[in-house]
Known about the structure:
Layout: E1 17-21, H1 27-41, E2 46-47, H2 50-54, H3 58-64, E3 68-73, H4 79-86, E4 93-96, H5 111-121
Parallel strand pairs: 1-2, 1-3, 3-4
Helix pairs in contact: 1-5
Amino acid sequence: MTMKKTEEKCLCGASEHIVLSCSGASDVGQISDLVARKLSKEGVRKMNCLAVVGAGIDKSIRDFKTKNILVIDGCPIDCGKRILEKNGLTDFSYLRVTDLGLKKGKTAVSDETIAAVYEEASVIV
């Protein structure tokens, strides 16, 4: 497969208030991802890409340092939080889904669960 070198650009869109989430393989990771998507869809925060931080994309990391960031992690492993901190991002708000009483591996990914976590996340400034 041949790929042309093009200008590096994120097509995620821009906003002063962004959300980054764990999108892990567990139920609480899926909930984190779906809540972030709902925050973006509802216009509360713009969902952006945690992977660009993990990949060390300097331009995105510099840009994120100027934003109001909410990180949503699914469980106490705190992958999202650790990725940001390892890349020099320390000024962000944080929500861990399991801190809300949900159990990793035992939580239904339902509209009700997503709504409950969304309610908590949507008021974080």
